[in-house]
Amino acid sequence: MKMLKIKYILLFSITIVIVAACENPFAPKLNTTGSNGGMLNSQETIDGVFENFSYAYIFKDTLVYGNLFTPDFVFIYRNYDKGTDETWGRDQEMLTTYRLFQASQSLDLVWNEILINVGDSLVRDVSRSFNLTITFNPSDIIRISGIANLRLKRSTDDGKWRIQIWRDESNY
Question: Which positions of the chain have pLDDT values less than 50?
Answer without folding.
Answer: 15, 17-21, 23-36
